Amino acid sequence: MSISHTLLGLLEAGPRHGYDLKRAFDERFGHDRQLHYGQVYSTMSRLLKNGLVEVDGVEAGGGPERKRYAITDAGVTDVQTWLTTPEKPEPYLQSTLYTKVVLAMLTGRDAGELLDTQRAEHLRLMRDLTRRKKGGDLADQLICDHALFHLEADLRWLETAGSRLEKLAKEVLA
Amino acid sequence: MSGTRTEPRAADGAAEAEAGGTPGSGPDSRTAHDPARRPSLRGWFDDIAMGLRFAFGGGREGWLRTCLTSVGVGVGVAVLLFAASVPHMMEAQDARKASWTPTSTFQEEPRKSDQTLLSDTANTEFRGESVRGRILDPDGEQPPVPAGLEAIPEPGEVVVSPKLRELLRSSEGDLLKPRVPGEITGTISKEGLAGPQELAFYAGSDDLTSDTASRVDGYGPQEGESQPLPAALMLLIVVACVVLLLPVGAFIAAAVRFGGERRDRRLAALRLTGADTRMTRRIAAGEAAGGSLLGLAVGGVFFLLLRESATAVRVQGLSLYSSDLLPHPGLTALLAIAVPGCAIAVTLLALRGVVIEPLGVVRQTPTRKRRLWWRVLPMLLGVALLLPYLGGFAEGETQSDVDTFQLAAAVVLILVGVTALLPWLVESVVRRTRGGPVALQLAVRRLQLDSGTSARAVSGVTVAIAGAIALQVLFGAVQEDETTLSGGPRFDSQLLVSTPAQEHATAEALRADLDRSQGVRETIALTSSFAIPADAGPDGMEDSVTVGDCASLRTLAKIDSCEPGDTFVVTDSDPGATPKPGTTYAMDDPAGDAKSGDKGRAERWKLPEDARPVSSHQAHDDFSVTSGILTTPEAVDDTRLTQGYSDVHVRTDPGNEDTTEHVRNTAARFSMAADTFNQTDTRVSQEFAAIKRGIYAASAALLLLIGASLTISTLEQLRERKRLLSVLVAFGTRRSTLGWSVFWQNAIPILLGVALAAATGVGLGLLLLQLAGVPMSVDWLAIGGLASLGGLLILLVTLLSAPVLWRMMRPDGLRTE
Amino acid sequence: MTAPATTVTPPTATTALLAASGLHKTYGSTAALAGADLSVRAGEVVAVMGPSGSGKSTLLHCLAGIVPPDSGTVHYRQQEMSSMSDAERSALRRRDFGFVFQFGQLVPELTCTENVALPLRLAGAKRRAAEERATHWLERLEVEDVRHHRPGQISGGQGQRVAIARALVGDPSVIFADEPTGALDSLNGERVMDLLTDSAKESRTAVVLVTHEARVAAYSDREIVVRDGSARDMAALA
């Protein structure tokens, strides 16, 4: 899962300071592991350097002063590319895909489209594997089968997620 | 046989072992005290009660099935109740008939007294219906009054049956009125009538003489004179009963199995929830019992409803009071036990070839061929039972009780044999069939897989048709036997009016009246009597003397020239019996007591020497004169002949039914003693025709009944194959192809059934004819008629199932969601 | 494998063997199809996927001319199917299409050979010739040893192979397969799909394959997803 893309995506909804970003990330995606502050700031400085975010301003609060980050046009394009590029179909993609779906929703993009693209990519790989299986020996077949069954499970997840998008959108945008 | 028995047993054992492992799953857990795991009586009742609940509480579909079964069983039960009413009906009718039949009919005539009356019959016929008429003339103050009358009607008065009163009131009755002598003053009550539709009257009179009328001193059953049935008639009745009742049994058996496929599926579901094989059988039995019990009730209601309308039915002048239709209590009890019993037996039998597994129904496909040998057994046994009688019954011999049972058993065995033979026949024919168009192939293959179901349904038809054909052969032959009775002079007449009178003048007077009667074209009059040669002893041979004008005489013999005053002698008989011209005959003295004495022989008549020899027309030698004297009235004093009767033969305009009634009226006006006979069609053959019509009607009704059950099973089969039909439609099967396959599927068993029925029927009929000692003859046209009824049935079933087939052939069946 | 891995673009209406556009079909009050488009090129295997109740079977029925759509058109070889009579469509199905369903499609009374020969016989072929061809196809599908058996006596996998033989026997242009492996385990299902797609490719028969299993859909060249009555060609996304 790409933390930088996720944070960028979160910024697309509006400028935030680092602490906000961490809290938002934890709320949405940090189910099993919370984001470390250091990760936020190091990512932000990398994004700043690449010109994908800019500092929107500095807040002086009760504590230490805080930088507010905003996404740049280049940043938006980057998010866009990331969201529309299907992941390489491989096992245990759920968390990445989930993150993508939620971010797509948060940023007003078409999450269904994202899932369909991913689905097509999965099936393309499955087709390749099926074809390879036909020509291969037993070992090949078994290896391909393993992959195929996993991919099939992912694909089912994609289908299930697709049919629950509306419900998810309600929760995410609530 | 034993192979199929043991197999389900083994399955039982396995199923029970399985069920035993699951707590509370079978009856076994309830009967833990019984180590042999035999279900307790309680368990039995529980299972059967569950079946009953399924029969009545199975939702809309369950109800439909139960309704179909109960209506089907009800129809059968109603028919059987009617059959069970026959004994009482006959008893009641016989008792009523006896109450107006004079006791003297078969006894010596009683002496004239204050308590006697003179009675003469005035029976007639009106448009094919017989009218019972009686003229009564009391001798004194206390004459015996026949049942149904309050008193003997006064001279000029008539008491009529309600139906006759109704008829006489209608415009139709005008034609009958002249034959009812007097004014209607009363109505015959129920006790005096055979049935509500009977046409009958009693007329009062004061001028009857003991010459024509008989003296009566009372009414009632004839002592020791109960007339046994003639053997041939008894045969007819036995066959008719078997023929009509067997298909009803077959129909009930089919009705009990309506919706069997669905039932099996429900039982499979029960197995899934833990019922063992035996439980499912008991539940199925309970369900069948439920349907048939309701059927009994429905049958009872049908019977009561039909009983009321039975009073309107008149067959052969016979009609019934609804109170006559009282089912025999023993037979009714038997019916009440036998119908549910048979329902259960049929269900269990049907389940024998089926293994109900928790996940579905496995039909044991019959891999073995059906064996022929035991299927022919009933038939062979039946024929064997008939063999001892093959010599034929002696003339006039009647049945003993043993004979009746043996005959009935033989006929039942032969007809049941058809039922047993049919599945084998269908199977072996279908097994050999290959090729043919797709529709035929589908049908044949279907029958190869399961020909039993349709063969069973058809066997009812087969029994009905075989029996009807057997009856047809019997009746056909008997009828021919009877119709040969008509004959007479070579004169193509339709009617014959006969009156007891030896004077030819009477005949001529009657003839003159009849010539004026409406619709009469031509008549001849012949008076027949006898004369005794004067030199013969008391036992001397009489010569017949026939008096008529030249034209009338020419109808009897080949006469060239004839003038009034001529006399002829018929010569073509035994020369010794030919009267010799010049013979002197002793004549009755009209003044004296004709019957009593020698002194009456004073008058003599000499057969003229110039009496010319003539030969008779050989064509009608039954009744025509083949010997004796033919004479013109001018040549003889016919007032002195003995035992004369005058016949007027009447030729009528064709196509006018009423002519007959006009002639009867004219004859009745002339003399109440004149009888009118229909020459073209004897009454006997009319009765046979009516019985034949009755059999046809009953066979047709049975065929319809069986058609209904065939249709239902076809529909059920179609519904079961909904998905398959949709698939067939998907890959482009024409509707007509599937329509034809349904057609063939019904046609093959029905055609085979009809063929088998025709063969058995003709065979049985000919065999029975041998018994009855009647020459053989087969009315192929009538058999063809019955066979085409079978064909009609095929069409009917196919047409009736077509709409459902069409609906099934929609692609909806492909949708699995 | 001869089939190119790159046949992913949907055919245009003129190059398509079978093309449907704007299909609407309503059963009672539920809309099974609401404006579905789809086209199939000669010889390609198209998988139709989608959740149950999405209308995939209805789409197949409309494409095959079994069910006329309420509105929209289906062209087969540039010929509009809804303008054909029922008899013409039946004849077309006999001649040009083959069918494989999930279950219950074999006539239980007929032997396997006779079942396979059935489409030929329906089209008017002589019994002997039809059964010879049927035997040939049963051999191709490796079920020649059950050719005299009845459907009740063979396994589900064998039954599906017989059904595929029957679908292929008439040398159809399109085979419509509705969940052909739905009642089979995965190994049997794969074998059946191998045989179906290989045979179809060899005889350049197009296959419209309705399935909800991704592994089955993986045998296709192209994937269509039906959702809420409309069809989406996934080729455009990959």
Automatic annotation (TrEMBL), chain A:
Residues 7-77 form the Transcription regulator PadR N-terminal domain. Transmembrane segments: none annotated. Pfam families: PadR. This is PadR family transcriptional regulator. It comes from Streptomyces oceani. The lineage of its organism: Bacteria, Bacillati, Actinomycetota, Actinomycetes, Kitasatosporales.
UniProtKB/TrEMBL annotation, chain C:
Residues 18-238 form the ABC transporter domain. PROSITE patterns: ABC_TRANSPORTER_2 (PS50893). Keywords: ATP-binding, Nucleotide-binding, Transport. The keyword Mitochondrion does not apply. Gene3D superfamilies: P-loop containing nucleotide triphosphate hydrolases (3.40.50.300). InterPro entries: AAA+_ATPase (IPR003593), ABC_transporter-like_ATP-bd (IPR003439), ABC_transpr_LolD-like (IPR015854), MacB-like_ATP-bd (IPR017911), P-loop_NTPase (IPR027417). CDD domains: ABC_MJ0796_LolCDE_FtsE. This is Macrolide ABC transporter ATP-binding protein.
